[in-house]
């Protein structure tokens, strides 16, 4: 039986694609872009429209040589060109390249901005009728010619997205570019045939259902038509049916909800400038323009989508409700030179949860101070500190004429409890979450799910999980999720494990959080997978140790309930949020749902994904370092490991903690524990240098400051230690011992105990460390007399062999003579593991009486073997007899019967 060879992947350094469920504008703009990027590979994004797919298969495939993503090697992509969208969530078919190191992204689009937009080196966005118009205009400007087939396809994209120039979004540029395409051979008859929509009998049936289900609603004086249909199969040209409906009934604003299988498709059209359907569909996970938009919703029923739509309509179509009708004025503020104790007093007096902070002598708002933070800071003895040290500097503000939807986005979507209202840069009032909720109680609509506190839309990264984890880990995650469903509990993977999936880094240290009984869950998981459990009843945690020695940490979470005012629904918040809030940084405050049906959904309460994308280390709250100063060392470790940057506010909090001398209050055990983690990093010196730069080394102990000599040795230590690790030899070097030798180099023996005492070395650790330093000092003296070519290699062996491997690594890094470095490396890699062929039993058979002489003889045999004087067993036995004669008193005869 022949074995099918795996197909060789195409190397595509430049890739062009568009949004999933592509329309003609998407495909046409891709082809236009291929003229600007010669040699690029076009990746077909997929489409649900059967007529479009047939056209693509019959014509576009052979004309323009589109490829599937599976045909290329994603790791080799250097430039990604995206047409007709900028949203990350709309290009799932190329997610595999977005984390490529150094990837460049170019964007071409005509849709409005969204929070989901990709960061790009080049972004060409114009409010024209189609993206094809934008790219084709650039092709024309470059003086590039088109074939008739190319011009026809590009024209098709423009005609479709402008409604054959009948939509209000059509611009003069669309006409102008279409005219140029005609001069290039565009065939209008072909376009007409492709865009003609003779309705099938089935489509007429669907249109009848839409007409029958259509209902009119008066929402704040605006007439809205909402209609629905339900079918188990996909309805091609659903948008065409909506156009027909609007034309037949002279409808100004229409929303059509179509359940097709397990998804709800939303098509929206508006001829009323007060109704921006693009913004509404964007809130539902889709996108588009103010006059034409769409969305696809998973995991919801028609009724739930309809409720969300009503909520968004009442929020959006609300021209009479703007900020100045909601705001409280004048605002209670405090100046930035006041103390935290002043802040607590002020907020207690007025019953405030937050207060705006303004520059002294002005009304320029520079931050927000929360009551919880201020009170906790005072409880830590920081009442005399200025509010500017701990206030939140990252906040949104609005102007008095801002509409309700933006207020809801900030207060409910972004969870900013107080919203400053400004005019000409000065604060004139505030809107609190209570103000907003009290107003919403009077409205007949619910707050949309997308804006409910702590119920943000969750991105599904199951494909990323599948592609980036080994199969055995994937099986483990699914087994945990299945078990959780059987027991009726939600199960999450949390922390650095999830972070490293997003970063594409290997990490098999799995932490689970269970909304239920974590210990019972762990026991059942161990029973099913084979393994044992170590439970910690006090903390309701457990460790599952599987038969292959993999470990899974399991923690317990409880459910908590928060009641909102009467007309609003009860929001159930799992304590997964509280579990994540206890973590150190946003990038570690992530959870991944594991239960079937929701597997792979990313839970991100604190903007972790944004911070990962922006390569930023950010604490979760302003007292983080006050509560645990060791988090500063962790911030540095993650910053250096990932190539991130500590955020501006977080860095201010670092410097504030150091100014308060919080490190002096830390136990040496905790500091040493964090230092050991740092010294386990691939490049610990990068962390140590950063600590020196911030004054942390001196804060730990003044004798640990990095001087030039120590830095030079540490540079060499990193090189030698990494080289030794690559040899995979035993015993492994203990990293902290290696680098602590470098850190304490030059410290006198009588002072060293100050450092070891500060770091709480155990008595054994301190004794062994002092002994190791003494052995190194002795070896250094002996090595000074060792000469290449004149000194025997066995002498080097004798100097090094009694010493632990950490000391030998230090000697190799410390030595400035290349020949000594070379021979130490030879000792580490080969000589250390040499054995002679003669042992104690052989000496006994030679008639040598056991005693100290055995050690002397065996050492000399090893030296002879190293120096090439006794490499075989026979030669070693002969030498042993000779050595005993030389060492003996001459009265005994070896080998006599």
From TrEMBL:
InterPro entries: CBS_dom, CBS_dom_sf, DDH_dom, DHH_sf, DHHA1_dom, NT_sf, PolA_pol_head_dom, PolyA_RNA-bd. Gene3D superfamilies: 3.10.310.30, Beta Polymerase, domain 2, CBS-domain, cca-adding enzyme, domain 2, inorganic pyrophosphatase (n-terminal core). SUPFAM superfamilies: CBS-domain pair, DHH phosphoesterases, Nucleotidyltransferase, Poly A polymerase C-terminal region-like. Keywords: CBS domain, Magnesium, Metal-binding, Nucleotide-binding, Nucleotidyltransferase, RNA-binding, Transferase, tRNA processing, tRNA-binding. Residues 327-385, 391-450 form the CBS domain. One of its GO terms (biological process) is tRNA processing. Belongs to the tRNA nucleotidyltransferase/poly(A) polymerase family. This is CBS domain-containing protein. It comes from Pseudodesulfovibrio cashew.
């Amino acid at each position: 039986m022949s074995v099918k060879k795996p197909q060789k992947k195409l190397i595509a350094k430049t890739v062009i694609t568009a949004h999933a469920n592509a329309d003609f504008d998407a495909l046409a703009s891709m082809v236009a872009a291929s003229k600007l990027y010669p040699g690029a590979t076009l990746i077909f994004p997929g489409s649900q429209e059967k007529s479009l797919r047939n056209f693509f298969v019959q014509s576009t495939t052979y004309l323009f040589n589109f490829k599937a993503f599976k045909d290329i090697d994603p790791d080799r992509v250097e430039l990604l060109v995206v047409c007709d969208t900028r949203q990350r969530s709309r290009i799932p078919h190329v997610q595999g390249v977005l984390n490529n190191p150094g990837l460049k992204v170019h964007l071409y689009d005509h849709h409005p901005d969204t929070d989901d937009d990709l960061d790009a080196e080049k972004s060409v966005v114009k409010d024209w009728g189609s993206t094809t118009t934008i790219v084709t205009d650039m092709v024309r400007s470059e003086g590039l010619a088109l074939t008739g087939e190319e011009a026809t396809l590009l024209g098709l994209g423009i005609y479709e997205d402008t409604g054959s120039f009948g939509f209000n979004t059509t611009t003069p540029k669309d006409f102008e570019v279409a005219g140029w395409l005609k001069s290039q051979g565009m065939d209008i008859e072909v376009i007409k045939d492709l865009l003609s929509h003779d309705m099938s009998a089935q489509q007429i049936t669907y249109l009848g259902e839409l007409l029958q289900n259509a209902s009119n609603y008066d929402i704040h004086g605006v007439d809205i038509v909402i209609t629905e249909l339900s079918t188990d199969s996909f309805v091609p040209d659903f948008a065409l049916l909506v156009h027909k409906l609007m034309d037949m009934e002279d409808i100004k604003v229409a929303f059509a909800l179509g359940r097709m299988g397990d998804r709800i498709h939303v098509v929206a059209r508006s001829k009323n400038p007060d109704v921006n359907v693009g913004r509404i569909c964007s809130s539902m996970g889709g996108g588009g323009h103010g006059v034409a938009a769409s969305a696809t919703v998973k995991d919801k029923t028609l009724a739930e989508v309809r409720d969300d739509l009503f909520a968004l309509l009442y929020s959006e179509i609300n021209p009479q409700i703007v900020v100045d009708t909601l705001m409280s004025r004048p605002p209670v503020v405090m100046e930035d030179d006041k103390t935290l104790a002043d802040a607590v007093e002020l907020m207690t007096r007025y019953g405030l949860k937050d207060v705006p902070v303004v520059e002294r002598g002005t009304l320029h708002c520079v931050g927000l101070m929360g009551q919880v933070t201020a009170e906790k800071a005072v409880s830590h003895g920081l009442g005399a500190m200025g509010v500017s040290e701990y206030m939140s500097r990252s906040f949104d503000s609005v102007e008095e004429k801002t509409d309700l939807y933006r207020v809801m986005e900030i207060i409910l979507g972004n969870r900013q409890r107080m919203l400053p209202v400004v005019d000409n840069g000065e604060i004139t009032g505030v809107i609190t979450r209570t103000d907003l909720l009290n107003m919403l109680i009077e409205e007949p609509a619910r707050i949309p799910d997308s804006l409910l506190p702590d119920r943000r839309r969750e991105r599904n990264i199951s494909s990323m999980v599948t592609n980036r984890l080994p199969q055995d880990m994937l099986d483990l995650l699914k087994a945990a999720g299945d078990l959780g469903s059987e027991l009726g509990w939600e199960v999450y993977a949390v922390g650095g494990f999830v972070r490293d999936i997003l970063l594409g880094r290997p990490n098999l240290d799995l932490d689970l959080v269970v909304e239920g009984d974590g210990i019972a869950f762990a026991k059942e998981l161990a029973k099913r997978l084979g393994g044992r459990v170590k439970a910690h009843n006090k903390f309701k945690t457990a460790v599952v140790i599987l038969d292959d020695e993999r470990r899974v940490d399991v923690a317990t979470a409880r459910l908590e309930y928060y009641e909102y005012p009467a007309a609003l629904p009860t929001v159930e918040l799992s304590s997964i949020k509280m579990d994540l809030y206890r973590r150190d940084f946003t990038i570690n405050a992530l959870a991944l749902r594991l239960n079937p049906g929701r597997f792979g959904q990313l839970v991100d309460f604190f903007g972790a994904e944004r911070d990962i994308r922006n390569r930023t280390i950010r604490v979760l709250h302003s007292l983080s370092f006050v509560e645990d100063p060791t988090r500063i060392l962790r911030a540095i470790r993650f910053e250096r490991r990932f190539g991130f940057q500590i955020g501006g506010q977080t860095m201010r909090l670092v410097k504030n903690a150091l100014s308060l001398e919080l490190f002096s209050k830390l136990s040496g055990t905790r500091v040493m524990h964090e230092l050991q983690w740092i010294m386990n990093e691939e490049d610990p010196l990068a962390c140590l240098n950063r600590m020196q730069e911030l004054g942390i080394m001196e804060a730990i102990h003044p004798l640990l400051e990095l001087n030039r000599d120590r830095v030079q040795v540490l540079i060499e230590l990193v090189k030698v230690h990494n080289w030794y690790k690559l040899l995979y030899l035993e015993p492994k070097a203990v990293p902290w011992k290696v680098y602590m030798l470098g850190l304490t180099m030059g410290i006198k023996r009588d002072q060293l105990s100050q450092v070891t005492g500060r770091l709480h070395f155990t008595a054994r650790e301190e004794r062994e460390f002092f002994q190791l330093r003494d052995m190194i000092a002795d070896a250094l003296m002996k090595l000074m007399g060792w000469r290449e070519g004149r000194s025997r290699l066995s002498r080097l062996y004798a100097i090094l062999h009694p010493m632990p491997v950490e000391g030998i690594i230090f000697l190799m890094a410390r030595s400035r003579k290349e020949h000594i470095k070379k021979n130490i490396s030879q000792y580490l890699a080969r000589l250390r593991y040499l054995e002679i062929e003669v042992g104690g039993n052989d000496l006994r058979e030679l008639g040598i009486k056991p005693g100290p002489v055995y050690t002397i003889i065996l050492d000399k045999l090893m030296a002879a073997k190293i120096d090439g004087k006794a490499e075989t067993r026979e030669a070693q036995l002969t030498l042993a007899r000779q050595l005993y004669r030389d060492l003996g008193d001459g009265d005994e005869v070896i080998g006599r019967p």
